[in-house]
Amino acid sequence: MSKLAPSPHNFVIPPLIKRNTILFALSQSFSGAGMQFAYGLGPLMVLALTGSAALAGLSVGLIGLSRFLASYPVGKITDAYGRKPGIFFGLSLALIGGLICGSSMYFASIWVFIVGMTIFGMGMSGVQQLRVAATDMYPHFHRAQALGYLALGSLVGLIFSPLIVGGSEKFALANGLNPLALPWFILPVMILSGMGLVFFVRPDPKEIGMNLGRYYPGYTPPPSGIAGKDGKFSAWSLMRNVPTRMAIISNCAAQGNMSIVMVLTSLVLSHHGSSLGAIAFSHMFHSAGMFAFTIPLGRLADRLGREKLMYPGVVVALVGACLVSFTDGSYLLVTLGTFLVGLGWAAANVAATAMIADHVETGQRGRAIGVNESYAGAINVLMALVTGPILEWSGLPMTGLVAVLVALPPLIMWCALQLGARAARKRATV
Q: Using CA of residue 17, residue 20, residue 26, residue 28, what is the dihedral sign?
C-alpha cells in the first residue's frame, strides 16, 4: 500500500531536516549578532572618526550598498556550487570586514572604516543565503514557516549583541582600550562558531531541494520555473512574472519604509525629550516586531497564501510609519508605530521570499532571492541618501510622509491588478 503524499495536514518534517534547520538557526544567532554592531555602533564610529553628525547614516548606507553589490553574485555561487560554499564565503568576508572595522578606530581613519564596513556588509549579504537554504529543504506548503524558524535565530542574535557590547565597554574602559573597537575584535569568535555549525549541515540544502521527493516520499512540487531564453536564469524574467514582480516590489516597499522609520524613531523621541534608555527600549520593540513573530507569520503565509500576508504586511508598516511621524512624539504611539513597522516588514519579507522561492527552480533560487536582496539593498541606499536632505530642508513630518509614500506602490499596483481581473471577468461573461 502506497504512502500518503505529504500535505499541509499530514506533513512530517524528517529528522535530518529538523537537524539542519536547528544548525542554520543557531548559526544565524551567532553570526547575525554582528549586524547589530553595524547599526548600533556604526553611526557612533563615524561620528568619532569624522566629528560630523551629518555623516552618521554612512554606515547604514554602506550596508545597503554592500547588499546591492553582493547578493546576486553570492547567489550565483550557491546555485553553481551549493548553499554551504556561498554561506562560508559570506561568513569569511564578514569576519575580515569586522576586523577591519575595529582596526579603523586605532588607525583613526574613516577610509579604513568604509572599506571594512563595505566588506563586512558584503559578507553579511552572503549570509542571507541561509534563507535560500531554508526554502530548499521544505515543500512549498511549509516554506514560509521554515523562514520563520531561521529568523528566530536572528532574534537570539539580538540578545547576544548588547551583552557583547556592554561587556566589551566595561573591559575596554578598565584596560584603556577603545570601547567602539573591541566588539569587532570579539566578533570573529561568533562568526567562527557560526561557520562550525554550518559545517555540520548534511547534505547541502541545494541537493535536498533538487530531490525533495527523496526526503518527503510522494511529494509532487507544483509547476514552477521562471527562466530566460534557453532555460537560463534571467533577472528580468522575475520582473516579467506578476507574482515575483509584486513580491520584489512589496519587499522593497517594506524595506524602504523601515529604513526611514528606523532613523525617524530616534529623532522624534529625542526631539520630544526621551532619554537614550527610553529610545533604546523603543528600538527593542521594533526588533521584536521584526523577528519575534516570524514563525506564526510564516504559518499564515503557508495556510492562507503569500499575497494574503504580504500586502497586509505592507499596510501594517504604512500605519506604523504614520504613528511614528504624525502623533506629536507620544512615546507610546511612536513605540507602537515602530513595532508595527517591524511587524509589517517581517510579514512582507517572509511572504515575498517564499513567493519567489515558489516560482523559481532550486538551481536558480539563490540568484532569484539574491536579486530580491539586491533591490532591497538599492532602496536602502536610496533612502539613506534622501532621508538626511529631507530632514534638513523639510523637517520630520515631511520625512514621515516619504516613508508612507514609499509603502504605497505595491498597494496601488495590487488594486490595479484586482480591477483589471474584475474587468476581464466581466468581459468573459458577456
A: negative
